[in-house]
Amino acid sequence: MSPRLHVAGRRFEPFARALERQLAAFEQPLEPIASWHELGELRALLLEDGALRNGSLDLALVPTDWLPELIGDGHVAPLADALPDDWEQAWTPSLRGLQTDAHGEVHGVAYHDGPTMLLYRRDLLDRAGIEPPADWEGFLAAARWLSEPATGRYGTVLAGASDGHNDVYDFVAQLVSRGGALVDGRGRAAFATAAGVAALRFLHELWHVHGVVDPAARAWDSVQSGVRFAAGDGALMVNWAGFAALCERPGSPTRGLVACAPPPGRALNVYWVVVVAAGARDLPLARAVARHLATPAMDRITAAEGATATRRDSWADPAVQALAPYYPVLEEAHRGAVTMPRTPALPALTTVLSEMAARAIWHGEDLSTALAEAAAQADELLLAASTADQGAPSR
């Protein structure tokens, strides 16, 4: 009888298609049981219900933002001798660091790459004589010029859902491009500043002043925003690079029309990682499957099914490059990319930032007030996480 392998991840068709093929290609027959969840459901399953520790799961696909808490609280097991042999050569440093703890133990391999990039309709910008914008002022000018709501195409596409994902990352992207930071060198909240006000104001005005965003996007999560861009509903956007792959799927109305470039300011480096559950029923098997998923052939399957390959050799493969327009510029986008603070408080911090963004953008709260109150909440979380870390035994 084939061993069962329980896997959980975010509901995203490319993940489901790729993983089905990859597990079928494992060296021994498996009986995979995969469950796919919305982002909030997945977070609750892993971080609140303890599914990685209680034997419910063997593997999971998780965003890097959750790793400090997952690693620090013992939800995931280190790869140990299942680490790929070409670990240091096959992935950029930016795709190896966030799953590596302070002791050098590696707790997963990159499965689906970010980072944020500028995705734009090459045909529309060329026709208008507009260069891909290198700053947010140019981005806004292009979005306003190319916005045609009467035809169903807006200047840009955003994800307005208050789910602690794109609503938070959009704020962080604006913040760092203005010289700001979420957390300072002392581990204190640093975003209740003039840069923070400017960041929130820019987002508020994109939604409510300039008329460049479809009002229906208020309910969209990041995946839906990528689907709508691929459907031709926007001229340009700063979003996860992988959504350009949706544009290249057979039958897509934007196939061959979308190009990618580094975003205004700096890219955000967030990616999805295969982690091994600390409570896996068969830990050696789970580790072997994680190692299998990191091989060149499996990484190319990830790309072929519409997610984003993470290995350098995949990025350089002409067959992979033909699948999406971002592969030739991924390495450039990773250089100097910004990562979220590495603290176990990060999942709770993103909830605070999500609530702050909703209050400022959707409920009309004074921007400075929303920032100051969120910073006070963030400081409590950061202090508690720091105190807990200092009191924990070394491992």
Number of helices: 17
Low-confidence stretches: 389-395
Question: Structural class, please?
Answer: alpha/beta
Please give the CATH class of the largest domain. Answer: Alpha Beta
**Proportion of beta-strand residues:** 5-15%
Query: What is the total domain count?
Result: 2
CATH topology of the largest domain: D-Maltodextrin-Binding Protein, domain 2
Summed over residues and divided by their number, the pLDDT gives a mean of: 94
How many E strands?
10
Helix content, binned percent? 40-55%
End-to-end distance, in Å? 37 Å
The value of Rg in angstroms is 21 Å
In CATH terms, the superfamily of the largest domain is Periplasmic binding protein-like II
The CATH architecture term of the largest domain is 3-Layer(aba) Sandwich
**Form type:** globular
Order of helices and strands: EHEHEHEHEEHHEHHHEHEEHHHHHHH
Give a verbal description of the structure.
The protein is an alpha/beta fold. It folds into two domains: 4-113 and 271-324, Periplasmic binding protein-like II (D-Maltodextrin-Binding Protein, domain 2), CATH 3.40.190; 116-268 and 333-395, Periplasmic binding protein-like II (D-Maltodextrin-Binding Protein, domain 2, 3-Layer(aba) Sandwich), CATH 3.40.190. Helix content is 42%, strand content 13%. It is built from 17 helices and ten strands. The strands form two sheets. Strands 1, 2, 3, 4, 5 and 10 form a six-stranded mixed β-sheet that branches. Strands 7-8-6-9 form a four-stranded mixed β-sheet. α1 (13-24) runs antiparallel to α12 (296-304) and α7 (166-177) crosses α8. The longest helix has 25 residues, at 367-391. The chain is globular and about 60 Å long. It starts with a strand and ends with a helix. The model is unreliable at 389-395 (pLDDT under 50).
